[in-house]
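Chain X:
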Amino acid sequence: QDAAAIGKQAMLSVVGFEKEKLAALCKDAAKQEGGKAVCQIANELFPKGYSCAGTEKAIGHLKVLAESDGALQAKILKINDGFHTSLMEPAKAQLGKALDEVLPRMQSPKHTIYMN
């Protein structure tokens, strides 16, 4: 919740750019917003497919930049948080503290765990 208090945030799905090109567009979008804007690649989904996250205005700028530069897709996601970005630092600190507190009481699993 502390991360949400930083301000409005958004995520954008972008398809059609190499990672370096999209990173440059993110940087330009953050500059357009100015101040403490955040705009960065959050996830690599598949070749030339990414989700980007950051402050709402910077992500809006990124959408316009990506579309004007020939993106196959630039779609705002129905997620209102800048997951996987520096905007989550407050949550990271709180989670780390909570994990440190329970670590002494943690034990190895007693059953086989399968993951897919």
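Chain Y:
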Amino acid sequence: ALTPEEMIADLEELSLVWELQRRTTIWHNDWRAPFLPHDYQKAIKWMAVEDHYVPHPFIPEDIDVDEAAESEEPPIREVKFLGRHRPCQWHVVVDESSDADGWQYAV
């Protein structure tokens, strides 16, 4: 059986959502959802990190990829936790691994 602290830690890990964006070209300053042919499932933009990026498991299966990619927040309205559906609220995490807006950059 899990302790309450372990349950909270598990939920926090499960609820972590990464927003992926790609710069249109090196000559542009705009960012958008991944769009290149090799981006494949990353085009949905809202990911979880396991061994690699995967679409977040809480994203509804029937969501349109373009709708998800255009969303400003994770398209996850509720999660089932402790036997109940609970509404979601999202906020950006700003810490030592991010810039002032909460973004991390891959190079």
